[in-house]
Amino acid sequence: MKKLLIANWKMQLSHEEACTWLEKELPSVHETLSFTEHELVICPSFTELPYATSLFEHLVWGAQDCGAEEKGAYTGDVSVLSLKDLEVRYTLIGHSERRRYHGETNELVRKKATLLLKHHIHPVLCIGEAADQIPIRRSILQEQLESVLPAFTSDDLCIIAYEPVWSIGSGKVPSQEDLRIILELIRELLGDHKHLILYGGSVQEAQAKLFSPFVDGFLLGTSSLKSEELKKIILSC
Ligand code: PGA
User: Fold this and answer.
1) In the CATH scheme, what is the homologous superfamily, with its name and number, of domain 4-236?
2) Buried/exposed 215-232: b ≥16 CB within 10 Å, e otherwise
3) Neighbours of 17 (CB within 10 A)
4) Which of 93, 124, 207, 231 could form a disulfide with 32 if both were Cys (CB 3.0 to 4.6 A apart)?
5) Catalytic residue flag (residue 95)
6) Is the CB of 169 under 6 A from ligand 1?
């Protein structure tokens, strides 16, 4: 089974910097990949997608978000129709930074999931509890999942990225045992839905090695821009 590795570049690079990364760093990262073992999905900013997808047609591209409507007067939003035109295959939805800084609700996230599925783009649903929600983790994950799952039919693949908010960019990660228990809970909540579960939050080579046997892949932030670290993570999966 291939490991799904999703690189979330967030808003870390300018257009020039991102293009330089794609030209200078990506070829060696690409050489590290085994196409039978890994699927690497890079999610740059929207502005880089047209360039990136034309430069490396053989790679898989993702978006960090999408608009909740197909078309219309939604200033600043980017339509799934544009993502589809660019052959984007995956799109993150419900990332904790979207929930926190843009007030995205589970209901909005469900609308995005429905639209993406309609246009045959895989939604990657990000869920996770904040530090002060650890004692009520079960109910948080349950609410995040149960409010979005109705968008998925039994034929759709649910890709879930479990990203504890307290772990993102902090260097803190759950223990292997805690993660095993949380994954069990997520699987239980997913019921009969076909699914893949990724882990995200401060993943470096050590965590990739430790968690890889339990997960279907990783959502990578900081490490995804450090090509040497990214190659080590790929080789650990
Ligand atoms: P991080 O980010 O790897 O820098 O913790 C992960 C994410 O937010 O997707």
Assistant:
1) Aldolase class I (3.20.20.70)
2) bbbbbbbbbbbebebbbb
3) 13
4) 231
5) yes
6) yes
Mean pLDDT value across the chain: 96
Q: Tell me the CA–centroid distance for residue 201 and ligand 1, in Å.
A: 5
At 86, the amino acid letter reads L
Hey, what's the torsion of the CAs at 17, 18, 23, 24, to 10 degrees? 60
Q: Is the CB of 202 under 6 A from ligand 1?
A: yes
Span 154-193, pLDDT tens digits: 999 999 999 999 999 999 999 999 999 999 999 999 999 9
Q: What's the pLDDT tens digit per position in 70-80? A: 999 999 999 99
Q: What per-residue confidence (pLDDT) applies to 55? A: 81
198 by DSSP, 3-state: which? strand
> Domains of the chain: which residue ranges?
4-236
**How far from the centroid of its chain's Cα atoms is residue 145's Cα?**
15
37 is catalytic: no
21 alpha carbon – ligand 1 mean position (Å): 18
